[in-house]
Design brief:
By secondary structure, the protein is an alpha+beta fold. The chain folds into three domains: 290 residues, Beta-galactosidase, Chain A, domain 5, CATH 2.70.98; 156 residues, TIM Barrel (Alpha-Beta Barrel), CATH 3.20.20.70; 77 residues, Immunoglobulin-like (Sandwich). Helices cover 17% and strands 30% of the residues. Strands 6, 7, 8, 9, 11, 12, 14, 15, 18 and 19 form a ten-stranded antiparallel β-sheet that branches. Helix 6 runs parallel beside helix 7. It is globular and about 75 Å long. It starts with 6 loop residues before the first helix and ends with a strand.
């Protein structure tokens, strides 16, 4: 029989035999999934989650941190997923699939659980890989549903005083994507809310620390729960836009009540659910850790780093985009692009991105002719090079870029009408540019995702481009305005263009930019963010005698602010003064360590940037790593910075960039290190090695 089957069918039958025998199915070393009578177990070397089968609508039995030796037992006798009451579960089904490693994704094991409840079909896909102490759960719905419960908890001021156990009950059952009820009362919890729309927001992270008590809802994409007795805990990550942007939002992302923690908000309305097509809710990731905050953050980051491989020749970049000098599309043409490439080469730039204006169609932001994004495809040549500006197409630009070692990138605005109904045409336009010019990096701008269909069609667009470019495409996802993906949705597609800042309007202050990156870096991999530095000589007069004006800093310092992220030169290279081109020495040195620096877990150190702080970043690679330290405008030449190093270990510091001296010293409390920088507004980048 084996000889008559293809390899794939044989593998599938072998998988079924393993399942029937109750044996683990390995996606890779250490990953397993097995259903043994009424118990389903999913795990790897770091984490294990056991479920009571419950006809497919599973109930968590236990959660284990295998490295930390901790086991949590779920005290809740209800299913992890809740969408409607009073309907029996039926048609439970279990299967396991293995997705192979490719240019973007590492190998993953998927445990697929499906069941029906009334007229609604539910599919839950649990994803696990060998590198992370976490399990992600996707929820897909199909069929009919009368309504989805929002269930806002009652306002405490409207509740009566508590004299009897019955008084403690709070009505209002919200839809639940995942939940746990664990033993103990001594939980320290933190909910983290994120804000994009950075043209309007300059405070991007909001932390809410609390001790859970009576039932209450909280906003955010992240919930960290730390048990003080066990010195361990877990996190929930909701892979969705920021709370203020989510679809079908009910006002809360998490509900807590003593040791009961739930994730709310599907991102779907009842009307979004179709009879014959699966519709995906927001994904929830559950991760475990033992220890303190560093262990907690490393557990989160270990998952985030598996979402998209960081390939040095594809994802690392020092990009230049000329839009930051406010010429818009007025200068964009072949001659301008060629001259900009020459300046970019002197600076050490790796990617040159032509923003709005390269294409035949005119956008609403054009300085030459006010165009429109409405009905883009009434002009079939909209996304072809402007024949007047680029009479020879983009070929000469790409050719010169290759000769200089610079990759050409483009700006692109998908056609928004009818919920991105033309997504296939948009994808084909980008694929054609890839095939004709080898252009694979696109800044995706102008997105608006007001409903589920828009999200679905955009996902199809991204996936089509990836499929037809052999996973070589990179998308710079603009987070400056509109309802977009934020920091936790679409992250497998590239990086995030964080903010527009301009000296013309005096809204570029270096410490503001550093502060935004510093705050985000704790919870979002900074190597997935594009961070800008500007021409500090432009509009210097508009800042007057401002102590924190860009002109108060060296050009090298402005670049150094971006090094923990993907640096973005947000200016025209051809108008820089000659002295600015000396930055190329620093950039070329940085590029030699950029990828290794980004491969570590990068976290903020020191004080929050304020313009007068000692601050910076640490990249952690087990017993070695990197520091970037900034001395802002403070009188102290020496400071002691708390780091993520262990206490009382001897480390060796070697200066790589900026100004600093080699040091060997022993860390103090909270990993504290003494750092010296003689000048204000200066920086140093060190490599470090733990000696003992």
């Amino acid at each position: 029989m084996k000889g008559s089957l293809t390899g794939e069918i044989y593998t599938f039958l072998l998988l079924l035999l393993l399942l029937a025998a109750g044996m683990p199915c390995s996606a890779q070393d250490g990953c397993y999934s097995r259903l043994d009578q009424d118990t389903l177990t999913i795990g790897n070397q770091f984490i294990e989650r056991k479920f009571i089968w419950n006809k497919g609508n599973m109930i968590t039995y236990s959660l284990s941190d295998k490295k930390g030796g901790k086991v949590w037992f779920n005290k809740l006798g209800k299913p992890d997923f809740y969408i409607q009451a009073g309907t029996a579960t039926q048609n439970g089904h279990y299967e396991v699939l293995v997705t192979k490693e490719d240019a973007i994704h590492i190998a993953t094991q998927e445990t697929i659980i499906s069941f029906s409840t009334g007229a609604l079909d539910v599919k839950r896909i649990y994803r696990i890989n060998a590198q992370s102490a976490s399990i992600a759960c996707e929820t897909h719905l199909k069929g009919q549903l009368a309504g989805i419960a929002v269930g806002r908890p009652a306002n405490a001021v409207d509740q009566k005083n508590i004299e009897f156990a019955e008084d403690m009950k709070v009505n209002g059952a919200a839809t639940v994507l995942d939940q746990l009820k664990l033993e103990g009362f001594h939980w320290q919890v933190k909910a983290v809310e994120f804000f994009d729309v950075t043209d309007w927001n300059n405070n991007l992270v909001l932390e809410n620390k609390f001790i859970p008590y009576r039932k209450k809802g909280y906003r955010g994409n992240l919930l960290f729960a730390h048990n003080q007795e066990k010195d361990a805990g877990f996190f929930f990550l909701k892979e969705a836009p920021g709370s203020s942007v989510q679809l079908a939002y009910g006002g809360q992302d998490f509900t807590t009540e003593f040791g009961h923690f739930a994730v709310n908000g599907l991102g779907l309305n009842a009307a979004d659910i179709c009879k014959n097509e699966w519709r995906k809710a927001y994904t929830v990731v559950l991760g475990v850790y033992s220890g303190q905050e560093l262990n907690q953050l490393q557990a989160l980051r270990s998952y985030q780093k598996t979402i998209r491989k960081n390939e040095p020749n594809r994802d690392e970049m020092v990009m230049m985009n000329t839009w930051g000098d406010r010429s818009q599309d007025a200068k964009v043409n072949e001659r301008f692009s060629l001259l900009e490439l020459e300046a970019a080469a002197k600076l050490g730039i790796t990617h040159f991105q032509i923003d709005d204006g390269w294409q035949q169609g005119k956008s609403p932001n054009s300085a030459l002719a006010k165009g429109s994004f409405t009905n883009i495809w009434t002009n079939p040549n909209y996304w072809k090079p402007d024949t007047i500006k680029y009479p020879n197409g983009l070929g000469p630009i790409v050719k010169r870029g290759k000769a200089l070692g610079i990759e050409i990138c483009l700006w692109f605005n998908p056609s928004i009408q009818h919920d991105y109904a033309d997504w296939e045409k948009d994808a084909s336009a980008m694929v054609e540019l890839y095939r004709m010019y080898d252009i694979r990096t696109f800044k995706i701008d102008g997105l608006s995702i007001p409903n589920k269909q828009s999200e679905i069609n955009l996902t199809k667009m991204f996936n089509k481009v990836l499929s037809e470019t052999d996973n070589q495409a990179v998308f710079n996802l603009d987070a400056t305005a509109g309802r977009r993906g934020g920091y936790h949705l679409f992250t497998e597609y590239g990086n995030i263009f964080l903010e527009n800042r301009y000296t013309d309007w005096q809204n570029y202050y270096p410490y503001w930019t550093l502060r935004n990156l510093w705050q985000l870096a704790k919870y979002v991999p900074p190597e997935k963010l594009q961070i800008e530095f500007l021409n500090k000589w432009r509009n210097a007069d508009k800042y007057g005698h401002d102590l924190f004006a860009p002109s108060q800093y060296t050009f090298g310092y402005l670049f150094a602010i971006t090094m923990a992220a993907q640096p973005l030169a947000w200016f025209e290279g051809t108008v820089l003064p000659k002295e600015a081109l000396e930055l190329g020495i620093l950039i070329n040195k940085y590029k030699k360590v950029q990828h290794d620096f980004h491969q570590g877990t990068i976290l903020p150190i020191g004080e929050e940037p304020s313009g007068k702080s000692w601050t910076g970043f640490q990249s952690i690679h087990k017993n070695r790593g990197y520091f970037i330290v900034f001395r802002e405008n403070t009188l102290d030449e020496t400071d002691v910075l708390e780091t993520w190093l262990p206490e009382k270990v001897k480390i060796q510091l070697k200066p790589l960039l900026g100004r600093g001296k080699a040091i060997i010293q022993t860390t103090g409390r909270k990993g504290a290190l003494k750092v010296v920088l003689p000048a204000i507004n200066d920086f140093v980048m060190y490599s470090y090695t733990i000696l003992k």
